[in-house]
Amino acid sequence: MSSSTPSPAPSSSLPSTLSSYLLTFTEYASPPRLPRLQSLYSDFTAAKHNNPAGFNANVAWWRGVLLGAVERGLLGSPAAERIVLRAGEEMVESLRWDGVGRPLAMGAVLAELAQTKTIYPLQAFLSFPDALDAQLGLPRRLASALVGRPLWWALQQLSLVGDGEDYSDGPTKWRRFKGDYVVLPLLEKAADAVFKAQSAKPQTSLAEKLYTPAGFASAFGALDGLGKLSETELQVLRKYLSRDRRVVVVEGEVIKFVEPHATAPQAVTEVDRGVLAMKTAAATLGTQITEIESQIGERMAKINQYLRAKQHALAKSYLRSRKQLEDLLLKRTHSLETLQGVLLKIEQAAGDIEIMRAYETSTATLRTLLTASELQRERVDETMDAMADALADHREVEDAMAIGGEAVGVDDAELEGELEELVREDREKEEREREWEKKVEDKQKEKVEEKEKVGVEETPREVVEEVGEEAKAAEREKTAVRGAVAA
Q1: Is 312 exposed, middle or buried (0-12, 13-18, 19+ CB in 10 A)?
Q2: What is the SS3 assignment for 75?
Q3: Are 5 and 40 in contact (CB under 8 A)?
Q4: What residues contact 171, with CB distance under 8 A and at least 6 apart?
Q5: Model confidence over 355-371: pLDDT tens digits?
Q6: Where are the beta strands (DSSP E) in 279-390?
Q7: Among 33, 146, 247, 471, which residue carries the largest CB count within 10 Å?
Q8: What is the arrangement of strands in the sheet containing 254-257, beginning at the earlier edge strand?
Q9: Residue 211 phi/psi, 5° resolution?
Q10: How much is the pTM?
Q11: How deeply is 263 buried, as exposed, middle or buried, from its count of CB atoms within 10 A (0-12, 13-18, 19+)?
Q12: Distance between the two ends of the chain, CA-based, in angstroms?
C-alpha cells in the first residue's frame, strides 16, 4: 500500500477549482496512478477488519484531500464554506474522476473522521450546551440515562457509543453518516485567527470588545488566510468561541469579548448594551458621512458639467442640492463627534471603575493580612524580643569559643623571642662568613709575600685549607665558651 497521506504535485499557483486542486496530487496528476486511485475510490469499508493498515492509509489520504478542499472553499454547496463540510451526494459527485468513477467508501471515511474527532455533526454542535471536551467524554451509561435519545443518536453517529464493532457495508455507512459536519481542525484555526485579530485591538477600549452579529461578521468574516465565511460558519465560530474557548459571551444581539482566564463569570451588562448601541450609531453615522461626501462629489461634477454646457438653471439646482448636503454633512459630523466624545468619557469612567475595584481589592487583601495573628503587636514584640535573646546567646557562645581558642594557643612573647634568636644566629653566621673570607684573603697575601722572599709559590687551595682549619678551631673554641656560659 502506498503512503497514507496525499502527495501534492508541484504547482505554481493556488488552485481555484476542485479539479485543479485534485490535480495537485500525484494520484490524479497526468498520467494518473490508476491502481492507487482505484483502491482509493473502491468500497474499502470491509478492509477495516481484514486489512487495517490499508484501511487506515486510505482514510488518512481522504482526510487530507477533504480538509484541504474545505479549507480552500472548493468542496460542497455553497462552495465558499471553509469550516463546514457538506457531505452529500453533490460532494461525492464532485469527486468523480474519469476511469475510477465516484468514491464508494465515503461513509467509512466520515465514520473514521467522526471517531477521531476531526468532524462533528453540525446541528449537534450548535445545540449541545456543554463544551466539546465534556461531551466527548460522557460515559455510555450517563449519556443514555441523562441526555436522552437525540443526544444518544448523535453520539452514535460519532461512534462515541454503540454496541460493539460496526460491520456495516459501504452504502449503509454512507446513508448513516452523510450530512453536514463542522471540521474541528479548521474551526480551531479560524478561532485562533479571530482571537489574534481581536488581541491586536486596544484592550483598554470597551467599545472594541463589543459587537453585533453584523459587526462581528464585518470584523472577522473575511480574515486573511480564512476567506469569506458564511452565516452558518459565523454562527459555528461564535458558538465555539463562547462555549468552548470561553473568550466570548453572547446574549441576544450582543457579542462581548472577555478575559479568557477570568475566575468569575462575565456577563453582558446594561453598560455594555448602551456602549454597543452608541458604537453602532457611530458606525452608522460614519457610513452616512461617507455616502454624503460621495453625493457632494457627484453634485460638484454635475455643476461643472452644466456650467460648461451653459445650462445655468440646472447648475443652480445642483448647487442648491450640494448646499443642502453640506449642511447635512455638517450636522452628521457634529453628531459623530458628540457620540465619540461621550464614548470616550464612558470608557474613561469604566476604566476608573476598574481602578477603584482594584484599590478596594488590594485594601481588603491588606486588611486581611494585617488581621493575621502573626502580625499582632504583642506577637511581633514577643518575636523580636525572642530574636534579640537568641542573638545575645549566640554572641556569648562565640565569645566563649574565642576565649577557649586563646587558652590553647602559643604565647606571642615567646614567639617573638624565638624569632629574634633565629635572626641573631643568621646575622652571626653571615659575619663569620665575611670574617673567614677576609682571613683567607689576608692569609693568601701573607703567604705570597713570604714565598716571594724565599722563591716558593703556594697555591690558593693550600691557603684556603689552612684558613679553614684555623676557622674551625676558632668555631670550636667559641662553641665551648657558649656551652660553659649556658651551664
Answers
A1: exposed
A2: coil
A3: no
A4: 107
A5: 898 899 999 999 888 88
A6: none
A7: 247
A8: 210-211, 254-257, 248-251
A9: -145, 150
A10: 0.65
A11: exposed
A12: 115
